[in-house]
Amino acid sequence: MKQTTTPMKHYVTYLLFISVTLNSCGQTTNRQTVDKKTESVAEATIGDIDNKSVIDEKGMTLQTRFNPPEGFQRKPVDEKSFANYLRNLPLKPAGAKVKYYNGAIKYDDVYDAVVDMDISNKDLQQCADAIMRLRGEYFYSIKAYDKISFTLTNGFKMDYTEWTNGNRVIVNGNKTVWRKTAEPSNTYKDFRNYMEFVFTYAGTLSLSKELHSKNIKDIAIGDVFILGGSPGHAVIVVDVAENTNGEKVFLLAQSYMPAQETQILKNFNDDKISPWYSANIVGRLYTPQWTFEVGQLKTW
Q: At which of 209, 232, 256 does a domain end?
């Protein structure tokens, strides 16, 4: 369960508190892993590829650090799109370790890079939260403030424009409502405070209801593999490349529990193309800390 002592909780009552219990990512004791002795990964038909040329340790963004596997190319995307934002995420220097919200190091060998984006010292930015953070940061960066909106677990719609107008969430009887309790403001600090409120009362369950199912054959940057619930988990597709046969490979990013920096996941199923994953899979997608059904791919 997410826990926080942030003063923002003073604006809400038991109705919202209940939603917090539904927002946690997969815990260690519930972790789903790959048992290659009993279940095999679907064949990728990628062929023999040498991944030595995939990782360029000098690259400081996603697309300069990770080259597509041999025979694959990135397709151009609109410069102002969410896809382009994700493809150009800044990365920490090669070899950097993921840090938890309290400054401790994540030593699990499950990631190939760390996204250079700070997190707070509260145990809030877990799996779905990191995805919402990326989505929110993108819209904030292009000043599309009216696009920043997430639904809380109880179904209440949290529009950022309400927050910038000085409104805050309270409960009126059985209804969750906005009430003006602050001066209008739209600083980056306001945005981060808004996002942390969202992290507290939204999660995989609410985000999965906001997204729409998608066929993996049509996988694109920004899509999300998600299982809503407690425990649940979510990872986001941060890049896609394609070959002349129409086969696709993709990169995945995640946060996890407890709150931690966003990381680019390794692919333990195929070290020839890792950290890229093949989209030529049937049944299940195995990631280092969770197993998804292929049908759990969704989009915005």
A: 209
pTM of the model: 0.88
**Interval 266-281: pLDDT, tens:** 999 999 999 999 999 9
Whether residues 256 and 228 share a domain: the answer is yes
Q: Kindly state whether residues 281 and 142 are assigned to the same domain.
A: no
In this structure, what is the dihedral angle of CA atoms 236, 241, 243, 244, given to the nearest 10 degrees? Answer: 110
The string over 251-279, giving b where at least 16 C-beta atoms fall within 10 Å of a residue's C-beta and e elsewhere, is bbbbbbbbbbbbbbbbbbbbebbbbbbbb
H or E segment to which residue 24 belongs: none
pLDDT score of 70: 96
Structural domain of 137? 7-29+125-209
Q: Provide the residue type at 30 as one letter.
A: N
Intervals of the chain under pLDDT 50: 1, 3-15, 17-18, 28-45
C-alpha angle with apex 135: 116 to 265, nearest 5 degrees?
A: 50
Q: How far apart are CA 234 and CA 208, in angstroms?
A: 9
Contacts of 186 (CB under 8 A, 6+ apart): 145, 164
Cis-peptide, bond into residue 76, ω within 30° of zero? no
- CA distances, 240 to each of 100, 139, 156, 204, 300 (Å): 28, 21, 33, 23, 16
First to last CA, the chain: 26
Calpha distance 237→257 (Å, rounded): 19
Element housing 111 (H / E): strand 111-114
Q: Other CB atoms closer than 10 Å to residue 242's CB: what's the count? A: 17
